[in-house]
Amino acid sequence: MVLTNGTRVSGFLLLGFSKNPHLQLLQAFLFLVMYILALTSNFIIITITPLDEQLQSPMYYFLKQLSLLDASFISVTIPQYIDNSLTGNGYISYAQCMLTVFFFTFLAWAEVAILTVMSYDRYVAICFPLHYELIMDPRKCKRDLTAVWVSGGISGTLYTYVTLSLTFCKAKVIHQFFCDVSQIVKLSCSNDYLAVDRVDIVVIWAAFACFISIAFSYTHIFSTVLRIPSAEGRSKVFSTCLPHLFVVSFFLSSGMCANLKPTSDSSTTLDLLLPIFYTVIPPILNLVIYSLRNETMKRAIQKLMLDREFTERKMVFQRH
């Protein structure tokens, strides 16, 4: 039941990208491939960072946490959409939708927070190399990580609380492939949406503060790098900073475009596509982005693959 008149509802209908059964199957296949790629790439990072001795610095500690967040973030929306496409049924229960709202807003903010912490880590490493180990000691790293998860939990709790308070007067049809807060708000009655707007304002200001912090960090980083006389030294610094800067820019710019663009009652193709740019693509590209110009990551991955191949050969030899 997705229709109601001024009541808190039993469920919603997710329209997704197409009503054509053949296109839905194709979409399910494409999203399944992307989902498997995302999980595989992030689990590789999660696996190799604790095992390799050269990947024990705070940078890789936070990278492992980013990969964990990315694997969780994409798992909030994509499996549900794949199931809906395969069954041809876009129905999602009210409880499932609220859980999606909580984990989506929780993990989305945690991503912003971890990217900010990673920017600060690069700033300290490059601008204060002699004091790096003192400033970014294990206790501080754990405190920073705790702040990331707690702030994410606060964001998720606030958004879920105000969404639960909404009363709906329209058909419970969401023009998106997941339970997006901005789409749910369009279905609410009278001034119910004002509570969501107040949370939006708080989160936007907090995100702006993170953006300023990231901009400050990279301004000083590039200023310091340009003063390095050795071309090899500059290249080594850029190899660790540019991948992270790309991820930050891609995630924040696509997220800001999706959330700050004017809303309308009728959804456009852009409304459907924008969430893909910050929910699906970054998790898929993590392994490529962070290993493409990072020799330490490349060597760790090669070592992992060679060790695995050696172990498999040894087991075959022992059997014979």
Q: Largest beta sheet: what is the strand line-up?
A: 2-1-3
Give start-end ranges of low-pLDDT stretches.
1-9
Give the total of beta strands: 3
Alpha carbon gap, first and last residue: 62 Å
Structural category is mainly alpha
- Mean pLDDT, nearest integer? 82
Strand content: under 5%
Shape, per Cα inertia axes: globular
What profile does the largest beta sheet have? 3 strands, mixed
Radius of gyration: 22 Å
Residue share in helices? over 70%
Count, helices: 11
- Helix-strand pattern: EHHEHHHEHHHHHH
Furnish the topology, listing elements before pairings.
Blueprint lengths: L10 E4 L6 H31 L6 H30 L3 E3 H34 L4 H4 L2 H27 L8 E2 L6 H5 L7 H33 L5 H30 L8 H11 L1 H12 L2 H25 L1
Parallel strand pairs: 1-3
Antiparallel strand pairs: 1-2
Question: Could you characterize the architecture of this molecule?
Answer:
It is a single chain. This protein is mainly α. Strands 2-1-3 form a three-stranded mixed sheet. Helix 3 packs antiparallel against helix 5 and helix 8 runs antiparallel to helix 9. The longest helix is centred in the middle third of the chain and has 34 residues. The relative contact order is 0.13.
Task: Give me some keywords for this one.
3 strands, mainly alpha, disordered N terminus
Sum this structure up briefly.
With 320 residues, the protein is an all-alpha fold. 76% of the residues lie in helices and 3% in strands. The protein is globular.
